[in-house]
Design brief:
Blueprint (H helix, E strand, L loop, with lengths): L2 H8 L1 H15 L5 H13 L4 H17 L7 H13 L14 E6 L6 H14 L4 E5 L7 H12 L2 E3 L7 H15 L3 E5 L7 H18 L5 E8 L4 H13 L4 E5 L9 H9 L3 E5 L7 E3 L2 H8 L1
Parallel strand pairs: 1-4, 1-5, 2-3, 2-4, 5-6, 6-7
Antiparallel strand pairs: 7-8
Helix pairs in contact: 1-12, 2-3, 3-4, 4-5, 5-12, 6-7, 8-9, 10-11
Length: 299
Amino acid sequence: MGFFEKIKAGLARTKENIGHSLDSLFAGELDDDFYDDLEEALILSDMGAQTAMDAVERLRQRVKEEKIKQAEGARGCLRQILQELLQAGESSLRLDTTPSVVLFIGVNGVGKTTTIGKLASRLKGEGKRVLLAAADTFRAAAADQLEIWSQRGGVELVRQHEGADPAAVVFDALTAAKARGSDVVLIDTAGRLHNKQNLMNELNKISRVVDRELPGSARETLLVLDATTGQNGLIQAKQFSQAAGVTGIVLTKLDGSAKGGIVVAIAQELRVPVKFIGVGEGIDDLMPFEAQAFVQALI
């Protein structure tokens, strides 16, 4: 299945949720009811009220400027506007030092460890030597799960015992990466600590270890969110963004959600780019995000 087909399939439930109403709208009249109904359809996709209002207001203005008379003619304008709303920064990973570091954060259950395994496989397929750091030492069997993914993807893993200091695991992993000539270190972190202050303290401690051991290295902090949680995911994203310098979003389980519009809300409200989307269970179903293909599949 090609790239566009995978995204289209991944958005099938969202399309099912709003597709019929959009098709009906674009087949109708370009009047006030059209704009009201369009805003409602976008909110139903979990784009969020403010983002939906902004998109529709931009569409009104553009239709006026371009003197568009038919509703069908507004479809292309809406696609263009949504692509613009999705432009929140560089969507590709910055991995231009050896080694580079990618830190994964997010609550338990969003598919964080699975995402790390899939990305490791993708990067290895691109010819990079990948090392995984099992720094989620609080959740039972988290390191075991990551080890299964490391074996499946044929990449190296550094782990310690359950309850070990996460920063110590990161130190060991970075030491190993330097010794073995690894290109990328992917770090799993705890999805739940007792409170926000503990979370910030733990992430800051890990960051200090990376700064000390790999000064000047390229670093990404990816927040993993579950698309099926919709606006709740956006609340999570805001909390984690305050606790850590998030450089990108990975949106998992998009194929299981009717709320694909949340991608636009995240990019617009957080001004953080979506870098990957998960559209299936397979090891190759974690895909780099492309705004144009996403909007084309959605609208």
